[in-house]
Amino acid sequence: MIKILLRYTNLLVLTLLVVVIFSFALAYLFPGEPYTNLTGVIDEQAAAAHQNLSVTSAFWQYLGNIFAGDWGLSLMTGQSLADEIAITLPATLELSLYALAFALLVGLPIGFWAGLKPHKGIDYSVLGASAVMHSFPVFWLAMLLVLIFSLQFGWLPMSGRLNLLMDVPNVSGFIFVDIFLADNIDRSQAAWDAVKHLALPTFCVSIITMATIIRAVRRSTLEVMHKPFIIAAQSRGLSNAQIFFKHGFRNALLPILPILAMQVTTIITNVMIVESIFSWPGIGNWLLQAIYQQDYPAIRAGMLAVAGAVIVVTILIELFNRIIDPSREKFEDVTF
Fold first, then answer.
1. Which of 9, 41, 182, 214 has the fewest CB atoms below 10 angstroms from its CB?
2. Which residues form the ABC transmembrane type-1 domain (predicted)?
3. Is residue 331 scored above 50 in pLDDT?
């Protein structure tokens, strides 16, 4: 166990170091002074002094600032980039988490159901539906849902995380935690309003991952239910339900877990696309505004934050999979 932890820790540190090096290089690739791109400060004397530093010295200085929480300033707002990322990144992670949870909640039972009814009407229907779900462009689906459920019927809000009339201070960045911590509001009403705001973007982001999970679970269930230990259980007279829940469920689920690590990147990417359509105050929408305004320090810092979050979550999921499934011997199976 200690060896596994050390190997994954080394992988995490080395990968994050590569990302930091790339973010540092962006400051020299963007237009303008590298010093300004690194700090967000326009100072000719400081820029001249920075030019006299060697690349190695400048990188170690940059690395020290990153660890100290000094990610620079935004050229447009003049605010600390670390503070702005601390506000926007939790909103993106929250939507990603809910989308993954919804995809699992719906995809797992449907995939198991199709796998237990192979080559029948329900199986073909599920396969066809999952193929259609996987082919939907996320941005097109988002606009279609806004048109139907927001503009046409008015059932769900089309933008934001919460009604503007509800005063919920941003404490943690996670809306339900902030609602719980807020005073002088109707928490149940605020929570219901947050759920309605989450409904459309969560469904849009989860649809592709849900289709992937359905197909993977179906395939895994088919393989497991034809294993010799399942046939032996059937010969002992056990019911299909007993066989599946006692012997088939866990074994069919294990191959699905590594897929979750690969889906992290897909989900976060789709969230960053959907944020601009639903005016979700996440880091994707924030980065899009930074690109429009040519705020190079914000682009650099945003890239570093998103890449770091994806790497950390992916490796943690892989580590969890490796711990609960010791049969995975090959360390090279780690996915990014």
1. 9
2. 89-321
3. no
